[in-house]
Amino acid sequence: MQIKLAKKYGFCFGVKRAIQIAEKTKNSITLGPLIHNPKEISRLEVKFGVRVEEDTQMIKNGEHVIIRTHGIPKGDLEYLKTKDVQITDATCPYVTKPQEIVEFMSKEGYQIIIFGDKTHPEVKGVMSYSTTQPIVVSSLEELKEAKIGKKIALVSQTTKQANNLLQIASYLITHCYEARIFNTICNATLDNQESARELSKEVDVMIVVGGKTSSNTKQLLNIALQNCTDSYLVEDENDLDMRWFEGKNICGITAGASTPDWIIDKVKEKIQSL
């Protein structure tokens, strides 16, 4: 069976930067998982002593805290600054951007609308920078049911699909007196999504490698399924089901932005062993 890799896949700039920070800061604490990939989080803990803490109240004086790539709520960051701890901010610059936009535009009197998943840590962090209660929608249908004002500012979770953002932006432009639209989707996300879309048209089975809680990985799977119905999400080679490949000739592989090369290589090797 022939195996094709997407032109763009795997670690993005923000994730690479965060991993490098964690590897240089041994025995540190990350407030929430540094990235959405449990296998890589486990590697950092075993090899570098980097452990995860979910509760800011459990952070003790004298500890070294790394802010996760997705960022944290503004209140949590302000609390950490009151303690005797060393803080290293590994928030991806693409995530910092919507935080800054939301803070500024809300102070200017704009109603904030965030296109994203309200339970995602990135979105929770962005929400916290709004001086008024923001509206979070995951689809155009949700937006149509929301009570929106005449003066709004729109930002997006960095891993969303551009086409869906465009639909929401178009609706707001035609329903609001003033609409400020900010495209805060990460460039690497757009590249990975487009590469996955192209590859899924060329194969008869598609494997997406990444954390099952990763938003950008799930977006890649949704894109692949549009062109290749036999598309599957795996965290590592152990999730592969050999029945997926029966009667298939070309297998495509892509990976989420939080997926390290060593996991992708193992998945590829196992498929090649068929």
Distinctive features:
single chain; 274 residues; alpha/beta; Cobalt-precorrin-4 Transmethylase, domain 1; Rossmann fold; 3 domains; 4-stranded parallel β-sheet; 10 helices; 41% helix
Summarize the entry for a quick read:
The protein is α/β, with parallel strands linked by helices and 274 residues long. 41% of the residues lie in helices and 19% in strands.
Protein topology:
Elements: E1 2-5, H1 13-24, E2 29-31, H2 38-48, E3 51-53, E4 64-67, H3 74-81, E5 86-89, H4 93-107, E6 111-115, H5 121-127, E7 135-137, H6 140-145, E8 151-156, H7 162-175, E9 178-181, H8 187-200, E10 205-209, H9 215-227, E11 231-234, E12 250-255, H10 261-272
Parallel strand pairs: 1-12, 2-3, 2-4, 4-5, 6-7, 6-8, 8-9, 10-11, 10-12
Helix pairs in contact: 4-5, 8-9
Binding site for dimethylallyl diphosphate: 36, 70, 120, 214-216, 258
InterPro entries: LytB/IspH
Keywords: 4Fe-4S, Iron, Iron-sulfur, Isoprene biosynthesis, Metal-binding, Oxidoreductase
Describe it for me?
- This protein has helices spanning 13-24, 38-48, 74-81, 93-107, 121-127, 140-145, 162-175, 187-200, 215-227, 261-272; strands spanning 2-5, 29-31, 51-53, 64-67, 86-89, 111-115, 135-137, 151-156, 178-181, 205-209, 231-234, 250-255.
- By secondary structure, the chain is of the alpha/beta class.
- The protein has 3 domains: 2-9 and 188-272, 3-Layer(aba) Sandwich (Cobalt-precorrin-4 Transmethylase, domain 1); 13-92, Rossmann fold (3-Layer(aba) Sandwich); 94-185, 3-Layer(aba) Sandwich (Cobalt-precorrin-4 Transmethylase, domain 1), CATH 3.40.1010.20.
- The chain has a 4-stranded parallel beta sheet with strand order 1-12-10-11, sandwiched between helices. A 4-stranded parallel beta sheet has the order 3-2-4-5. It has a 4-stranded parallel beta sheet with strand order 7-6-8-9, sandwiched between helices.
- The active site is at residue 122.
- Its cofactor is [4Fe-4S] cluster.
- Its EC number is 1.17.7.4.
